[in-house]
Amino acid sequence: MTFQNTREFAQQLDTQDTLNHYQNEFIFPKVNDKRVIYFTGNSLGLQPKRTKAYIDEVMNDWAELAVEGHFYAEKPWWDYQERFAEPLSKIVGAFPSEVTVMNTLTVNLHLLMVSFYQPTKTRYKIICEEKAFPSDQYMFQSQVNFHGYKPEDAIVEIKRREGEHNIRLEDVLAKIEEVGDELALVLIGGVNYYTGQVFDIKTITAAGQKAGAKVGWDLAHAAGNIKLELHDWNVDFAAWCSYKYMNSGPGNASGCFVHEKHHNSDLPRFAGWWGHNKERRFKMEPNFDPVHGADGWQISNLPVLSLAPYLASVEMFAEVGMDALIKKRDHITSYLEFILHEIDKEVAGNFEVITPSNPAERASQLSVFLHGEGRALFDYLMKNGVITDWREPNVIRLAPVPLYCSYEDMYDFGQILKKGILGK
């Protein structure tokens, strides 16, 4: 398709968009009494309108049933988390028994590393990407310290080549081969939070396992955003947050994946009452008998009030389906890229999109270096109803989330961006 930088063309694309009506399912903030253009679903997704009903249902059951809500609520709290298995499995490409919800993201990655990072005197190194999200970096440092290793010895970062913004797949594979018999774990973000680069999860997983390591993925920016086939790709484990592309609310519950090949293993894990055999849980037995599947990694009674908005979201994803989301994601991201290049020409600017141009290596994010521009332009955008994300030194991250962003939003953003630059 040949794109055009006109309102009429953008409106025509919206008319053809089968997901366009889902904008009405969300609540948008307003700036100057006008609905914002929201580009920060890669940080916190918008609130779905249906969320409140799910929370109110739990609140009403608590008020009317109190403790009996565990068993007699319309959605009993006792097995509330089991409602996630089917829809989440479709989002991440897994069997229902391979997914669960619990805790928050970094907590879950720590708990999964109890099982999947088992260093020995000779095999103790972890491979991660350079400039991983800081929480992952802190996690790696504390884990290797806990096991008695020095971070500078045990943590191996795959670096970008000089002058390049993204990590080459060939460099990831070469580093895995280089570390070889010393490699215990590969743990990388499926989508890099800063550049928006999508890693080849299937190929990297196979290479890490061939080297004798376990391979896990931080899918914070991937779940609900890219096509995942975690079971078929033979991923050992993964975890993700739910408040970015899955719109479950600030700091909400994390999802976990544990491949079925590990369900009957004797891997170590930290245990708790909620992960114990469901049928025998109230017998208060002294020895831990884990639930079969990923639920056996649960520890504590789950926060149902937090799970309610997440359930509202995954049920919306079940209606839409990942294939439809990804189709629009690719198209609207390409249109946004076109708009950026058009405005760049109109203002004689110097924008540099550091996200890969290959659609197979990117998702719902464009990270843009605004060469010659500064924080003042970001402030202008925010004051004029474009909610975006600033990263030092002068990068803005734009996430045209397909569920609630329109093509006309992309056009309007371009016009606001142009005014912000020319009005300096």
UniProtKB/TrEMBL annotation:
Annotated pathway: Amino-acid degradation; L-kynurenine degradation; L-alanine and anthranilate from L-kynurenine: step 1/1; Cofactor biosynthesis; NAD(+) biosynthesis; quinolinate from L-kynurenine: step 2/3
Catalytic activity: L-kynurenine + H2O = anthranilate + L-alanine + H(+); 3-hydroxy-L-kynurenine + H2O = 3-hydroxyanthranilate + L-alanine + H(+)
Residues holding pyridoxal 5'-phosphate: L105, T106, F133, P134, S135, D136, D218, H221, Y243, W273, N301
Enzyme class, first EC level, given as a word: hydrolase
EC number: 3.7.1.3
Residues modified to N6-(pyridoxal phosphate)lysine: K244
Domain Aminotransferase class V: 90-246
A Pfam family recorded for this sequence: KYNU_C
Cofactor: pyridoxal 5'-phosphate
Molecular functions per Gene Ontology: kynureninase activity
UniProt entry keywords in alphabetical sequence: Hydrolase, Pyridine nucleotide biosynthesis, Pyridoxal phosphate
Subunit structure: Homodimer.
Family according to the record: Belongs to the kynureninase family.
Function: Catalyzes the cleavage of L-kynurenine (L-Kyn) and L-3-hydroxykynurenine (L-3OHKyn) into anthranilic acid (AA) and 3-hydroxyanthranilic acid (3-OHAA), respectively.
Protein name (Swiss-Prot/TrEMBL): Kynureninase
